[in-house]
Design goal:
48% of the residues are buried. It contains two helices and 24 strands. The longest helix has 11 residues. With 425 residues, it is mostly beta strands.
């Protein structure tokens, strides 16, 4: 395994030498590039660690969405335990991850999530007493949760129409860091999870259309987040020009993962307009390009859903309240739904001009002082020293178990070509 050199060797080796013998330059959790930077339209193989199973406390919440009387607010919150199986790779960019959700009253929901690998980055906490490397691998998730008969939580009201299943989208971060105990040095893992079943106008617009409004779903959203230490939503995102990082294409039919294409030559622009009916929502216009073999091709929002008039929406789920420098610290979490027009570089099986995407943004809460967690990225096989504060990942919908595709012009669910967009600010 080819592991990358750690940038802060001197202090780390001094501490390690006191505890257990390590060879010069060794680190118990060596940084790993995913090796997806290569020549344009070549097909590298992702280089990832073995990810562990997860058991973590979380919150299952229902939210008012643009309610004419109640506005936007949390309707109810239930503490749950989320159990995830170790990811099982099924294609070059796709992993299956089993999930079960439970409370002290019993099992709430089960399912299998499709994990689409997005990227890896470093998460450096200046409050750490030991200057260690903390590395994160992010997967975009979507899949059905099948709800069990229970009074512990309220399933989305559309679930009985789909054999008690509701479709959720989101992401998971696997974070790995070194632990320096008196008797040993080891690698430990931490995790961050978000899953959302959006209100009817978003989630049932194309993939699983409903013939008529479902009571309680037109203005209600359902979320599952972990760890549980997350405060309720507040301020929205600000506009940003993203000069980093890349796009990546996957041909789902042929099973080909193509190399990353750097953003450029112009910055990717996200213009955000707050939703006047909900302070937790922001409508977005996204416009960007990526380069492959010197050719720039674009992606941009397509406003073809009345519920998302600009073509993209960001929904603020809340801010984590971790302490002691532990991941995910004080990260804010936003979930996205977007319809993007794509000018493909490499794919021979594109699904049309408009693709349905879901995504996530994590950033440091600007209202928190003295607890800033900068991100770092890998470029050309090295962990760069640039300091970033916001990560946005978007991916289009490729879950082949969906009952589709639905015949809508320039729009398909599922898609037969996959696009990952990685934006860093």
């Amino acid at each position: 395994m080819h592991d990358l050199p750690l940038r802060r060797i001197p202090r780390l080796c001094l501490i390690a030498a006191v505890l257990v013998p390590l060879l010069p330059g060794q680190h118990p959790c060596p940084p790993m590039d995913d090796r997806l930077e290569a020549d344009c339209c070549t097909t590298p193989t992702p280089h990832l660690p073995a990810f562990p199973p997860v058991m973590i406390g979380g919150d299952y919440r229902s939210h008012n969405v643009r309610h004419p009387l109640l506005g936007c607010s949390v309707l109810g919150s239930t503490a749950v335990t989320v159990t995830l199986g170790a990811p099982q790779q099924v294609a070059c960019n796709r992993w299956n991850i089993s999930i079960s959700v439970s409370t002290p009253l019993g099992l709430v929901a089960t399912g299998v999530l499709l994990g689409e690998y997005s990227r890896t980055f470093t998460w450096n906490d200046p409050s750490n007493q030991v200057e260690e490397l903390s590395q994160v691998w992010r997967f975009m998730l979507n899949g059905d949760l099948t709800f069990q008969p229970t009074i512990a939580v309220t399933p989305p009201p559309c679930a009985p129409l789909f054999n008690n299943a509701a479709h959720f989208v989101g992401s998971i971060d696997y974070e790995r860091h070194a632990v320096f105990d008196p008797d040993e040095i080891r690698c430990d893992w931490s995790f961050r999870l978000d899953l959302t079943h959006h209100d009817q106008g978003i989630h049932h617009n194309v993939c699983r259309p409903l013939l008529s409004p479902v009571t309680g779903h037109v203005d209600t959203r359902y979320t599952l987040t972990a760890p549980a230490s997350m405060i309720a939503p507040g301020p929205t995102l600000t506009p940003g020009n993203f000069t980093y990082e890349a796009t990546r294409e996957i041909d789902v039919v042929l099973g080909r993962c193509y190399a990353e294409n750097d953003l450029g030559p112009q910055p990717t622009l996200i213009t955000r307009v707050p939703d006047a009916m909900c302070p937790f929502e922001t409508f977005e216009v996204i416009q960007g390009t990526s380069e492959c073999a010197g050719v720039a091709r674009g992606f941009q929002t397509v406003p073809n859903n009345p519920r998302i008039p600009t073509g993209s929406i960001a929904v603020y789920l809340g801010t984590h309240t971790g302490t002691g420098g532990a991941f995910p610290g004080d990260l804010r979490v936003f979930t996205h739904v977007a319809i993007l027009g794509v000018d493909w570089h490499c794919n021979t099986n594109p699904s049309g001009n408009g693709v349905l995407c879901h995504g996530v943004t994590t950033d440091t809460d600007p209202l928190t002082t003295g607890d800033i967690h900068p991100f770092g990225i890998f470029k050309d096989g090295m962990a760069e020293n640039h300091v970033f504060t916001m990560m946005t990942d978007l991916v289009n919908h490729v879950l082949l178990q969906e009952p589709g595709p639905v015949a809508v012009a320039n729009f398909g669910c599922p898609d037969f070509a996959e696009l990952l967009i990685q934006l860093t600010l």
